[in-house]
Model the fold of this input.
Amino acid sequence: MEKMYFLAKKICFLFLLALFCSAPLSADVEKKVVLQAFWWDYWHNDYPNSYANYLTELAPRLKELDINAVWVPPFFKNPHSGSVGYSPFDHYDLGDKYQKGSNTTRFGTKDEVLRMIAVMHANGIEVIEDAVLNHVDGAGSEKDGNGGEDPGARDNKWKNFRYVSYDTPATDGSESDYWSRSGRWAKNWPNFHPNQAHDCNTGDWCSDWWGPDICYYEGAYGQSSNAVGYNPTQSANYMRNQARDWLIWFTKQTAVDGYRWDAVKHFPEWAQQDFVYNVKYSLPSWCAGGEAMFNVGEFIDGKSRIDQYCNDVKYANGGSEFLMGAYDVPLRGTIKNIVSGGGYANLSDIPGSQLTMRYENYATQKVHRSLNYVNSHDTFRPEFDEDGKYIGWDGGNETGGHIDPFDKRLGMAYAIAMALDGNISVYMEDLFNLSNGKRWTHDPKNEEELPVRDAVKNLIWCHQNLDFKYGDYKVRWQDGDLLIVERAGNAIIAITDNGASDREEWIDTDFRNVELKDYSGGVSGNRTAYADGRFCAKVTNTGTGLGYSVWAPANKETNYTPYRSAITVQEWEMANDLGDSHCESLGQGGALPENSTAQRLVGKIYAEKDKELSIVMHPADEDNDITLAIYDLDGNALSKANGTQDVTLTYTPTQAGWIAIKIWNNSTNNIAQKAWVKATYEAPAVVTETMSDIADTRASIWTGNKGTTDWTDCANWEQGMVPTSSSIVVIPDNGMVRPIINTNVTISELIIEKGKGSAENPDIMVNATLNVTGLSKSIEGNSFICGEGAVYMNDKEGNFDLCATEVSEINETSFSIFPNPATSQITITSDYLTQTELIIYDMSGRIVSKNIFDETIANIDISTLSDGVYYVRLNGKIEKFIKR
Done:
């Protein structure tokens, strides 16, 4: 482990700190208002197992509220989607692998998660991931837990952890299937407590309260005693090295900006120091967190123990940097007592209850490390009625007890938390009123359906626009009923819990000859800070008084601007022990195959229109010519580039939406190799219809990745999309294996990117019937469709050599729309077609209606559509109509 500072640097730092610690702040300040953007058992009926989409649509509102960052729940695969993320099964499954009965997580698919992160960035908002590295859960396959039990394990026997991968997708869920799975970071019983290196199963570090408890000791490694199949040998520090490697991979892949570290009390501080140091300093410059990176640990205990833990992490492994803060649990306890005290608590307890380890001073910036909070998913466990309104509290599962957001003192609690040093965590249910009868059905974009609590909104505005943390923290008054804190020269925050009378006191300040205004709105009129700095601060808690006031220069206006870049950079590692090739997975991942030109689907990004994006592919070996390409979801190639070393592709989208990234070898004379693909792009700041704007391919794209010619085998089609009668079928130009049709097939359109066949070796072999009801297009070269069957085509574009036994062209089918424009109903008139799908699209290409057309006339209800232009697709033909 590399030391963070040499001794000389440490001495120099301490000297400079002693020299300047009493001076006003002159360097930059790194502080954050972090929204905990979920509640315990988070769920929304309109975003089932897709909470990432909910947050994507909420993002513009969070920007308007001046939120710096969102803390999101863990989004790696848990044993089932009923889990909210804190029971990790496979850390490398971000909602893309098909295991445990699903490809998604409760939070969403990998595509949805990456879009959410990019949209947050487009709004200037950072994303903080919840890293759970204390335990795992759910050993065994999705079928009765087959293969998960190891009779040789000590204590809990369920410690065989195997994961699907691109090389080894799930098959039948049997024991042998599970044991054959070769996904990265397999685990065996010696990796958990108790084991031969740390024979312990009690206490903070060893208890398996939430599942098999990870052991980070050097000697905690070894094989399974019974797994037959994938059971590789391990070496010293296996779990520590694997956890570090995962964090590096995860940070690159997702572009998260910081971490909330779960349950840090329950594994060693030297492991935690290792993890935090590496995400801050060991990554490439484009994703390294650096000094200011947000890192906070969940350590539930008293002040002295939490301070000691932060100090232990600081000096672990020979380090000397205050890398990571903690939740200010003792401060929160004091805040809770004040709220519960009903006006009889002692406010003078507040300053002394804070953690000592609150911030780190660097040469050019002051970085706040601790995290102040009022509520969290651990303190706040309401019981609901059928509409999601509070009817009681599950106090037995609350850590530290809740503060009711309907309590008048909520604003006072947040005023305390924001006035003091430290970052601030705003709980979802404190900012938004979810107990309004629409918890599970509200539109996150609608301010009436998801209303904001005014006091919390006001205090966030004050914190951000009055620059609380840019002023030194000074306690100007404290007694049992009144606390006055100045953020030197920026704001004065006065807090009282006295409900019987107003409080006002003369205090010394750093203001000189300045008119000050109460930005809480609780006290009317301006007051003067005189030339000697004296100021009479007033706060009221009587009647409708808020219990807090915020005094600052009267001419302040909204000036907060997000400082997170709108650009997102995400990197995919293409390796056979990552991703998944199962038909029900996202079909992403896999190394470039040996002696093959078969494509690999890298992943998908959601890019803004008119914003140039850049994608770089770096191969492990630089001797083979490789193509990097991007496509839309209809299988249309947007741009391609190729080369033998780093390949760079730039492209400017003409519309916002999904872009699929693919790579393949250009020659069959190649080795199998990994590759890394990095996308740099900007997402739209506003995305409003996430649940219909999905990332799944809209075309059936032949890959031949199964290595067979079987048209009906889902493993030969991208994302397992075997063609149906409404499908657009794309035959890419890179495939080695061409399809053979042995059963009658009807498709909507056919696109062959590059005809490379012949009569003896055609691009498609037809031994039954191929009926293309719409356009057949050969983009480049002559496309051969041959065989012993029949080929029926409607329109053709490009060069086709049709050498099947029977070839004919279907008569073109036209249709009309009446009336046009229309208000509530349109009538479609056409030639008689048997069971033909009629699809209506909006201007963005989103499907808004599907119907089966099986008569010569069909009446279609369009009353629910918004006004605008729409397109009707029938039998490959498209007509436009206008809804008014």
Notes: The two ends are 67 Å apart (CA to CA). The CA atoms of residues 253 and 571 lie 5 Å apart. Residues 1-26 have pLDDT under 50 and may be disordered. The first strand starts at residue 28 and ends at 30.
